[in-house]
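Field notebook, page 258. I keep forgetting to write these up properly, so this time I am using the form the group agreed on. The chain and the ligand, S-adenosylmethionine, are recorded exactly as supplied. Prediction of the bound pose follows.
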Amino acid sequence: MRNEIRFLKYPGTKITLIKDIQKEFVNSGKKRFIDVFGGSGSVSLNINAEEIIYNDIDSDLVSIFKAVKLHPEEFYSEMCVMTDSESDFAAYGSHPVNWKNKKVRDAGILFYNFTTGFGGKGETYSTRERGAYQYTVKIMQSYSKIAKKIKEFNIENLDFREIIAKYDDYDSFFYIDPPYPGRNWYNFSFSIDDMKDLKKVLNKIKGIYLMNFNSEDPIPKEIFGNPQYTIKYENQNAIPDQEYRYYAYYTNSKKKST
Ligand SMILES: C[S@@+](CC[C@H](N)C(=O)[O-])C[C@H]1O[C@@H](n2cnc3c(N)ncnc32)[C@H](O)[C@@H]1O
């Protein structure tokens, strides 16, 4: 396992796919990497590119990245307040303290809610409390690397149709990891009509795109046809009796990897 940078706990994170995403990006010869459905930022945080654009429609997620980019030390102090002790951690969400930079404080609360609620709004908090505390302490150990990388991001908060229109040119590589219709894990879910729109947008895109889906899911095949290729990964999600996961990749790149 490589030494990937981790930051937010989030469902559907693609940290295990980085090596293959990086390979396609390098093969494309492009300079600009656009993480259209950026989520936890696990891909943006680990990709090597001259220019990285992190985008997500969820302004809560985006505000966390902006707080780290614009106020890295204050955000770190906020994490220190959060993790001073396990009991402080447990009380952090419900007993906000006064803080001079309200935006950083709000971002701290959102970070906390994503970490304890696993990408939701904190509803499933109590059972994950201890794991979330340890996770946050671990994240703080690599915070300088996280903050250094986020400092270089261009951060956007747009719908996929807008971000693609804004950056579409021959220097751009779009990484496309949309939510799966009907699986409502996120604050913003995706409909079949969104998928159909995505197909229309990708059909006339000037840059290169790379899109992935869980290969067992039927909707992508119905809309986009057969993928260019499928890759097998060891399953790190601890789902019993599922040793491997298979991801289907779609790309308009001429050079196909195998
Ligand atoms: C599968 S997750 C992305 C996971 C990400 N690749 C990672 O490694 O964490 C999909 C993301 O798409 C975002 N999203 C949903 N609808 C969107 C839209 N119309 N435009 C842009 N982002 C959207 C969600 O907020 C969610 O964070």
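OBSERVATIONS:
- Residues 5 and 142 are 8 Å apart (CA to CA).
- Residues 119-125 have pLDDT under 50 and may be disordered.
FOLLOW-UP: compare against the apo run.
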